[in-house]
Amino acid sequence: MAVVTGASRGIGAAIAKAYAKEGAHIAIVYASPSSTESAEAVKKEIEQLGRKAILIQTDLVKADCGEVVLRETLKGFNTEKIDILVSNAGIFKENHTLEFDADLFDR
Description:
Blueprint: E1 2-5, H1 10-21, E2 26-30, H2 36-48, E3 53-57, H3 65-77, E4 84-86, H4 102-106
Parallel strand pairs: 1-2, 1-4, 2-3
């Protein structure tokens, strides 16, 4: 069983599908409610591979996000452990590196 953050699209979705092809069940973690449709599409593709998938929508910047992901994953798969964690989520703000303020860098 694998948890993949940022798995509703792009590299995260590709990673989630690759793990599913290798036999893993997947927790698809994504931040924005506007990404729900794409997260559901990834979930459907994983399920078509014969694997289980759950969706966890949470803002990974919040202090309690780790607890939310852990709790929802363990409950969703009725398990006591996570085998794989792929911390893929990130943001892109077009800006020069030297112009990043501390808050943007932390996000």
